[in-house]
Specification:
With 253 residues, the protein is an all-alpha fold. It is built from twelve helices and no strands. The chain is elongated.
Length: 253
C-alpha cells in the first residue's frame, strides 16, 4: 500500500470521539495551510506530533491536555495521532524522552575543567533548562504523570545517568564499582529535585542562592560518598584537597 494511502486511512477517526470537546484554552495555534498541505513522511509526521505535544506539555498541566488538543494544534485528526501513538501516555512519554535528552545536553560536563567547575556548570545548565520548561518540569512531579510507568522509567534512567556523570567526573571509569558514592549522590538528586520544585512554585529565593545551595549539597554528598568507599576513585590526598576547597568556598571551619 502506498504511503499516501496509509496516511489517508490513518486519518480516519480511530480514537475516542471528540464531539462536544471544548478547545484547550491557550493551546498552540493550528499548523499553517502550507504545512497542512504538505505530505509528510512517517518520520516527519511523528516528529511533528511530538513537537506539538512538547509545546502543549510546556504550557499546560498534564491532566488538562488530551489527544484532541494535540491533533487540533497540529492541524490533523485525532485518528492520525492515534495511528502513531496508541495512547495519550505513549504520546506524552515520547515528548518527555526528547526533553530528557535535551536536559542531559544542558548539563553536559567539560572534562577539561576541575571537578567543582564541572558541577557548577552542570547546575547552571540544569536550572536554565528548568526555567525554560518550568510547566513541563512541574508536570513530571505533580498529577497523573507521576504514576505512569513509562515516565517513572525515564526519570529513573535520567537520574542514574546524572549520578554516573558525577562519579566519572571524579576519575572513575566504571561508576558501578562505587556503590556508596552513588548512593550518596542519589540522595543529592532527591534533594535537588525537591528544592527546585519548591523554588519554581514559590520563588522565595533568587536563582543565585539556589545555585549555591545545590553546589554545596552535591559537594557534601560527594565527600560523604568518598569517605564511605573502601577504595574511592580519588586518592586520600585528592579527597583532602577537595575538602579544603569545599570548606573555603562555603566559609566552613
Amino acid at each position: 500500500m502506498k504511503l499516501r494511502r496509509k496516511e489517508a486511512l490513518a486519518a480516519a477517526p480511530s480514537g475516542p470521539s471528540t464531539a462536544g470537546l471544548r478547545p484547550l484554552e491557550g493551546a498552540a495555534a493550528p499548523a499553517s495551510e502550507r504545512f497542512l498541505s504538505k505530505r509528510l513522511s512517517p518520520e516527519e509526521r511523528r516528529a511533528q506530533i511530538v513537537d506539538v505535544t512538547e509545546r502543549l506539555f510546556a504550557t499546560h498541566a498534564y491532566a488538562e491536555i488530551g489527544v484532541p488538543d494535540v491533533a487540533r494544534a497540529a492541524g490533523i485528526t485525532p485518528g492520525l495521532v492515534y495511528h502513531y501513538f496508541p495512547t495519550k501516555e505513549a504520546l506524552f512519554l515520547a515528548a518527555y524522552e526528547v526533553r530528557a535528552r535535551e536536559l542531559m545536553r544542558f548539563c553536559e560536563p567539560d572534562p577539561e575543567l576541575a571537578f567543582e567547575e564541572q558541577v557548577e556548570r552542570g547546575i547552571r545548565g540544569y536550572l536554565t533548562f528548568v526555567e525554560a520548561h518550568g510547566r513541563a518540569y512541574l508536570n513530571l512531579f505533580h498529577g497523573p504523570a507521576v504514576a505512569e510507568e513509562g515516565f517513572v522509567r525515564v526519570c529513573e534512567l535520567t537520574r542514574e545517568l546524572m549520578v554516573d556523570r558525577f562519579v566519572i567526573g571524579l576519575g572513575a571509569t566504571d561508576p558501578s564499582k562505587y556503590p556508596a558514592l552513588r548512593l550518596s549522590l542519589r540522595g543529592y538528586i532527591g534533594y535537588s529535585e525537591s528544592a527546585v520544585l519548591v523554588w519554581l512554585e514559590k520563588q522565595e529565593v533568587t536563582r543565585a542562592v539556589l545555585e549555591r545551595m545545590l553546589l554545596a549539597a552535591v559537594l557534601s554528598a560527594v565527600r560523604v560518598g568518598l569517605a564511605s568507599e573502601p577504595s574511592p576513585p580519588l586518592s586520600a590526598d585528592e579527597a583532602e584537597k577537595l575538602g579544603r576547597r569545599y570548606r573555603k568556598r562555603f566559609g566552613l571551619p
